[in-house]
Amino acid sequence: MTSFTARFEQISIITRLYGKLLGLKMIPVAIYLFGIALYRSELWYWFTIWNPVSTFGLLLLCAAGYVAIDKYYKRNFGRVTSNSSEHLIEWMLPGFFVVSLIACGYIEFYAALPLSLSCLVISVLLFYFYRENRTFRFHYLVWSAIVFLMAILSIFGVYSPSQVYLMGPDAQISLIVLGVILLTAGLIDHSKLVQTISANTEAA
Amino acid sequence: MSESNIFKKISDLNRTLHEPSRLAIMTVLSSCKSADFLFIQRVTTLSKGNLSSHLSRLEKEELVKIQKTYEGKKPVTIISLTKAGKKAIENHWNQLEELKKQSSDWEPEFEKKMPGPGTLRLKT
User: Fold this and answer.
1) Is there a contact between A132 and A144 (Cβ–Cβ < 8 Å)?
2) Residue B65, strand partner residues
3) How many CB atoms lie within 10 A of CB A105?
4) Span A104-131, pLDDT tens digits
5) Thinking of the domain B3-90, which architecture would CATH place it in?
6) How confident is the prediction for chain A on average, in pLDDT?
7) Which residue is closest to A83 within chain B, CA to CA?
8) B19: which DSSP letter?
C-alpha cells in the first residue's frame, strides 16, 4: 500500500510543482545578470561602449532564449495549468517580489545602508520556494542561507555594502552570486524533473 | 471492524477509478486545473493508445472533459476533471485512506477462532 500510494504522491507533487521545475528557463535570466555584472565591472569593453544598445540587445537575446526553452518544455514534457488559487499566487508573487526588490534596491542605495535589503528579500523568496516542498526543493534552503549571509556580512566589514546592493556602480557581487544561484538551482530543478519522469518510466 | 465490513468497503471502491493507470491519470488531473495529453503521457508512462482508451473511458463516465484545440497548426489536447470527477477522485482517496487505517489493525476471523499456542491437544 505504501509503495502504491508513494507513486501517486510523486505524480501529484510533480504535477503541482511542474511550472517551477522548468529550470532551464533560468539560464537566459542568469546570462542577463552576468552581462549586467560584466558591464558594471567594465570587464566587457564593447558592451560598455555600446551601452544602451548592448543592454537592450542582451535583454532581447535572453527573452528569445526564454521563449525557445519554453517551447522545448512544451514539446517534450507538455503543459499544465495550475489550480486557480495557485495560479493567482504564481502571477502575484513575481509582481510583488519585483516591486519589493526595486523598492529595497533604491532604499539601500540612497540611504547607504550597511547591509543589503534586496538580498534579504531574495533570501525570503528562496526560503518560500523551499517551504513549497521541503524534500523536493531542499536546495533552496541552502541558497536562501547563502543569500542571507551575503546580505549581512557587509555589516562585519567582509566587503563594502555597495557591492551587494542591487543598484549602483559597484553592485557586481550580488548580480554574479544571484546569477550562479539561478543557474545552479535551475539545473537542479530540471534534473529533478527529468529524473522523476525517468524513474516513473522505469517503474512502469 | 468486522471482516465482512472491510471486504464490503473494498468491493464498494469505484472500479473505473481503481485501475492503476486511470487512478494515475485522475491523480495528475486532480493536482492541477488542466494538463495536456503529452504531460499525462510522460508522467503516467502510458503509451498513446493506452492513454487514449483510458481517457475515453473516463470521458464516457463523465469524469474528465477533453478539449481539442490547435496551437498554430499543431493539435493540442487539453484534459481537465469535471465536477463529478473531482468529487469521485477525492472520495476514492478518502476511501483508500480509511481502508489503509482499518487494515492496519485488522485481524482475520480465522485467526481469532484459532486456539492460542500450547492449547492444541492431539487426540490419542
Assistant:
1) no
2) B80
3) 20
4) 888 988 888 888 888 999 999 999 989 8
5) Orthogonal Bundle (1.10)
6) 85
7) B33
8) S
Any chain A CB within 8 A of the CB of B25? no
Residues on chain A bordering chain B, Cβ-to-Cβ distance under 8 angstroms = 1, 5, 7-8, 11-16, 18, 77-84, 87, 197, 200-201, 203-204
Question: Which pTM was predicted?
Answer: 0.78
Chain A / chain B CB contacts < 8 angstroms: 73
Burial of A30 (0-12, 13-18, 19+ CB in 10 A): buried
Domain boundaries, chain A: 2-26+77-203
Per the CB < 8 A criterion, the answer to whether A147 and A166 are in contact is: no
Q: Which amino acid belongs to residue A167?
A: M
- Check if the beta carbon of residue A11 is closer than 8 Å to that of residue A200: yes
Which among B43, B48, B71, B104 is the top mutation candidate for probing chain A, defined by the most A β-carbons within 10 Å of its own β-carbon?
B43
Q: What are residue B76's DSSP bridge partners?
A: B69
A5 and B96 within 8 Å at the Cβ level: the answer is yes
- Count CA within 13 A, CB hemisphere, residue A33: 20
Q: Which amino acid is at A71?
A: K
Which residue of chain A has the CA closest to B18? A4
**Backbone dihedral angles phi then psi of residue B19, each to the nearest 5 degrees:** -65, 125
ipTM over 0.85: no
User: How close, in Å, is residue B27 to chain A by CA atoms?
Assistant: 6
Q: What ranges do the domains of chain B cover?
A: 3-90
Of A1, A78, A84, the CB nearest to B39: A78
- Contact at 8 Å (CB) between B68 and B44? no
Nearest C-alpha neighbor of B31 from the set B47, B44, B16: B44
